Amino acid sequence: MEKTAAHRINELIRGVSEVRLVGENIEPGVFKFTEALRLANELEVDLVEISPNADPPVCKLMDYGKFIYQQKKREKELKAKSTQITVKEIRFGPQTDEHDYEFKRKNAEKFLKEGSKLKAFVFFKGRSIIYKEQGQILLLRLAQDLEEFGKVEAMPVLEGKRMIMFIAPKKKGK
């Protein structure tokens, strides 16, 4: 069946003489193990050990294959609902000209529409660090231009030779 079943079923339940039986179409109670196994065969279901540490162990009458299938289906749905957040980067120089700025702004807009976070940064090479005000103005202008698509998560911060700003996409419902 599976590499290792999460539960012991039918004849794999060993070392017990009595089990507490629960399930549909059955009166809950304590039964001899052989009687519980016979009942499971009669109803054409599996005897599944749910709580092995109880005294006596608790077993349930159910279709084990169907149970595992529904459990996997539930896990798959939960996985599908969780979203992966991707971070896209856009790099500027402190003296980026208008055409390059517009091109990068359009890309940033596209990334935010797709639902990705945006990491915009100005990279200062050599002595261009003296233009850090220009870099800050550039990033703030970008934030203003992208206002309808995303909101600024972190204002421009200078980290070494980079001035970084994060913009998160706006929720589609708003």
| Main beta sheet strand tally, sense and closure | 4 strands, mixed
SS content category? alpha/beta
Question: Architecture of the largest domain, according to CATH?
Answer: 2-Layer Sandwich
What is the assigned CATH homologous superfamily of the largest domain? Translation initiation factor 3 (IF-3), C-terminal domain
**Judging from the principal axes of the Cα atoms, what is the shape?**
rod-shaped
Terminal-residue CA separation: 48 Å
Total tally of structural domains: 2
User: In what range is the share of β-strand residues?
Assistant: 25-35%
CATH topology of the largest domain: Translation Initiation Factor IF3
Radius of gyration: 31 Å
Q: What's the number of helices?
A: 4
Average predicted confidence as pLDDT: 83
SS elements, strand count: 8
CATH class of the largest domain: Alpha Beta
InterPro entries: T_IF-3_C_sf, T_IF-3_N_sf, Translation_initiation_fac3_CS, Translation_initiation_fac_3, Translation_initiation_fac_3_C, Translation_initiation_fac_3_N
Function: IF-3 binds to the 30S ribosomal subunit and shifts the equilibrium between 70S ribosomes and their 50S and 30S subunits in favor of the free subunits, thus enhancing the availability of 30S subunits on which protein synthesis initiation begins.
Domain Translation initiation factor 3 C-terminal: 85-170
Subcellular location: Cytoplasm
